Amino acid sequence: MKKGKIFGSAVLSVVIGVSMFATAAFGQTAKQESYRVLIQGPTAEKAKAKINYGMRWDFSDKGFTTTVNAKQYQALLKNKNLKIEKLPELQLNANPDKKAKPGVDAKAVPSDQTPWGIEAIYNDAVIAKTAGGSGIKVAVLDTGVVNHVDLAGNIEQCKDFSQNKSPLIEGSCSDGNGHGTHVSGTVLANGGSNGKGIYGVAPEAKLWAYKVLNNRGSGYSDDIAAAIRKAADEGVLTGSHVIISMSLGSNSKDSLISSAVDYAYSKGVLVVAAAGNDGPNAGTIDYPGALQNVVAVAALENVQENGTLRVADFSSRGNAATAGDYLIQERDVEVSAPGRAVESTWYNGAYNTISGTSMATPHVSGLAAKLWAENKSWSNVQLRTELQNRAKTNDIKGGISAAAGDDIASGYGFPRVK
């Protein structure tokens, strides 16, 4: 089984945001006692299996998922009427920024109300606070969120998909890791009640915090797929414009997540995900960012105080065969945004600076929320096109392709507010 990852920095043995899947994926050691599996087959046979093994998520024609022990797993494999697929277990991977010490370097007050990435995306070095995003819902699928003072009032939904004891827990999404709180702050932090906290890109947007990873940063693909579908259905139910933001990824393509992304996209949802931290070689982009119906975001770093940017060495690259064609296909980086040394809200109520394409992704999700709020008649496809049109490469150094844009490192470039 291939390992996955989440894109950012690390706490103790846990790496925040780097890439979603594990250093030693649970379920792949000699001591493993349980497996998360997808069961497919004739309706009658699936019905029997549900009775015998229970059900976690029902994906209709895709089958259903459940957790079984080793003995049950072997019994399922012997059933000639069923197709059994072991699902990947996802966990945080290595830290792309070796100097970052999340949890150790956390600060009680922010260094800057508008961190450098926010100033960069607004193209304003002296901006005091940001605005925008009213009426837009941003579903952050991550480790959850805490009711940080800079996020209070913006958390509209809170759901936990990660608990083994129940498929979905409403009203619970506590973040014991920090990663989910950090990326949420970059999207929509509102400065706090006194206006002295951090501001995100779109502080008037509403947060749907969907916890799909536990506090160790570990989670399964079926939980993520279920959360994607839930966000899409909630958007239809409430008549809302929804953006899904996922700072996570895997080296391999997962059928449940792929079909869930296609479903959400068909329902008018814009899906944004991290490109991954496996650079700098070509073809290292991770899934779900690599999917055609997902906006894949690469990470930029601030080279000099004059605003010169370049693609971070750790940022995953896209497919060299399609560079410069100005078409987004599977395994292409689409846009890029600030991703190194990004300061944002932290799970202990303080602020922290970490790195990764995890940190780049919420900049783009926030910008999308701001633009959609100003143009509510747009479809998700029109919004995506606008992000591409706003992306520029003339202030980005280090793109690998010779193309003026749509290269494998920065994609179309860095989209900005102005």
Report what the structure shows.
By secondary structure, the chain is of the alpha/beta class. It has 8 helices and 25 strands. It has helices at 43-53, 70-77, 116-122, 179-188, 221-238, 255-266, 357-374, 380-390; strands at residues 4-7, 10-11, 14-15, 18-20, 34-40, 57-58, 64-69, 83-86, 89-90, 136-142, 155-160, 169-170, 206-211, 219-220, 241-246, 248-250, 270-274, 295-302, 309-311, 335-338, 342-345, 351-354, 391-392, 396-397, 414-415. Strands 10, 11, 12, 13, 15, 17, 18, 19, 20 and 24 form a 10-stranded mixed beta sheet that branches. A 4-stranded antiparallel beta sheet has the order 6-7-5-8. Strand 2 (10-11) and strand 3 form a beta hairpin. Helix 4 (179-188) packs parallel to helix 7 and helix 5 packs parallel to helix 6 (255-266). The radius of gyration is 20 Å and the shape is globular. Residues 9-30 and 399-403 have low confidence and may be disordered. Belongs to the peptidase S8 family. Keywords: Calcium, Hydrolase, Metal-binding, Protease, Secreted, Serine protease, Signal. It comes from Neobacillus kokaensis. This is Peptidase S8. Its cofactor is Ca(2+).
